[in-house]
Amino acid sequence: MTANVAVPSPTKRDEFAPLPPIKAKSRISWSRVLTLVILLWVVIAFVVGAATNERLDWGAVATYLFDPRILEGLRTTLVLTAVSMAIATVLGVVLALMALTKDPTPRAFARTYITVFRSIPPMVQLLFWYFLAAILPTITIGIPFGPDLVTFDTNLLITQFAAALLGLSLGEAAFLAEYIRGGILSVPRGQSEAAAACGLTPAKTFFRVVFPQAIRVILPAYGNSLISQVKNTAMVFVIGAGDLMTEAQLIYSQNFQQIPLLIVVSIWYLVIVVILTQVQRRIENHYSRGYTRRTEKSPARRQPLTADSDRPREVTS
Predict the structure, then answer these.
(1) CB 1 within 8 A of CB 315
(2) Phi and psi dihedrals of 166, rounded to 5?
(3) The dihedral sign for the CA sequence 85, 276, 221, 287
(4) pLDDT tens digits, one per residue of 117-149
(5) What domains are there in the chain, each with its CATH number?
(6) What are phi and psi of 135, to 5 degrees?
(7) Prediction pTM value
(8) Res. 213 pLDDT band, cuts 50 70 90
(9) Quick check: helix, strand or coil at residue 242?
(10) CA of residue 220 relative to chain centroid, distance
């Protein structure tokens, strides 16, 4: 026997109903207020003290900020940074690949190079290359145990600018090699295996699969190294390479306006670093697409029961 029995569906449960808003009581964090007051007091005291100090000639700062000699030193600083970082980047990539190879000879060379040049301070390297002619008057290129092909005078070959490039780039390459090696190791091995299974050569696997993924890890450390390299160029004033610090030193050695000229140098370094920081952040955001964790604006809600669910259902027995 078949009978149609109307069974009412369950009513809407309270868990689907919107929760009433929670009124949170705002509390004043006195520790944050105290910290803010102290910081404001320090900033205001510094600004007022600098502005009212009669011995600090702000007119000289404004005069020398765009002085042609300062601008020429700024150009030299930018050129030193760009060229030294280009050399260090190429050499760092080569050293990183040598350190990752299975051949013990290039791996040992890369590790030795990285250890030595990371241990020697940059200023010591600058002075070493600048005074190289004291122990090596000439640099000869020729066949080992054979005739010499080309001979250079070390004083003419390694100028102040060349010594600055060698001191800045060779040492920086050791640090970049470790950053690049760490970025390559961060890529899962399965990516290389999948590329090899698709028939790609090791070179194509590295440049098309591994390195594009490693850039995301390398970029933050590389950006910091670039900013540090900009500031490291100030050390080349010890060999008079004509950078921003060298030109400022030549000026204040004549007019004895040391502090105003140092403020001028600090302003230009601040401008360069701020610009590079903004560029670094934009590039990092570009290569981090797809990796950043995105939070939803509102949590997902359950769909409430529709009106059709309130209708009785027919049960056949």
Answers:
(1) no
(2) -65, -45
(3) negative
(4) 999 999 999 999 999 988 888 888 877 777 777
(5) 58-139+149-287 (1.10.3720.10)
(6) -115, -15
(7) 0.75
(8) confident
(9) coil
(10) 4
